[in-house]
Amino acid sequence: MAQDAQSIADQVELLLEELAVTGGVRAGNIIVMGVSTSEVQGHRIGTSGTEKVAEQIYEGVRKAQARLGFHAVWQCCEHLNRALVVEREIAEAQGWTEVSAVPVPKAGGSMAAYAYRQLNEPCLVEAVQVHAGIDIGETMIGMHLRPVAVPLRPTIRSIGQARVNMAMTRPRLIGGARAVYTATEDSGTAGVKAPPTSCD
């Protein structure tokens, strides 16, 4: 069991490294983590949460944070309206709206409950718009991503039995046919390509 648990932490750490490289996540950026520990175990979301899995996922995030310098926020389940666990310092710096609740496994989810207890000064916020995210178990993190969300395909497609999806975000493109999206020495240069986008 310990070897399996350790592999979860390693896989999460690798996913975050991929997201940082592919998604352009920099130190100080914020990543939302949506996690169903039930799905990781092969059960339907919200039915069999366990903090043993949460502990390993948190460890993988913590190790990646130590090297990459991003901040993590943790999505609660729908019982808490998908509020997010975050360090109070980050919430105040971002101007996020705080809500009054303490996540527990049966109302908030095992992952959010575990993360809440690990932070220095945790609080819950109502909503965020962050730079990127990882969704382990199809928990639907899209509501917490900045526009415009761009899906990424990780090399690791599952953690345990849970499907994994990732997304980065990019600024909206504005202006139209004459707009330039990349700075050049010659500001009059025409035909500069826009950043790549994705379509279904």
Describe what you observe in this structure.
This protein has 200 residues and is α+β, with helices and mostly antiparallel strands. 30% of the residues lie in helices and 20% in strands. Helix 3 packs across helix 5. The termini are far apart. The relative contact order is 0.19. The model has no long low-confidence stretch (mean pLDDT 91).
Name the features.
200 residues, nine-stranded mixed beta sheet, alpha+beta
Average pLDDT, to the nearest integer?
91
- The count of strands amounts to 9
Number of spatially distinct domains: 1
Low-confidence stretches: none
Q: Give helix and strand order, one letter per element, not per position.
A: HEHHEEHEHEEEEE
The second-level CATH architecture is 3-Layer(aba) Sandwich
Estimated share of beta-strand residues: 15-25%
Describe the biggest sheet? 9 strands, mixed
CATH class, please? Answer: Alpha Beta
**Helix/strand class:** alpha+beta
Tell me the CATH superfamily. Hypothetical protein TT1679
* N-C termini distance: 39 Å
CA-based gyration radius: 18 Å
Secondary-structure blueprint:
Layout lengths: L1 H21 L7 E6 L1 H4 L10 H18 L2 E5 L8 E4 H7 L3 E2 L10 H9 L3 E4 L6 E5 L12 E4 L5 E2 L2 E8 L31
Parallel strand pairs: 1-2, 1-6
Antiparallel strand pairs: 2-3, 3-5, 4-5, 6-9, 7-9, 8-9
Helix pairs in contact: 1-3, 3-5
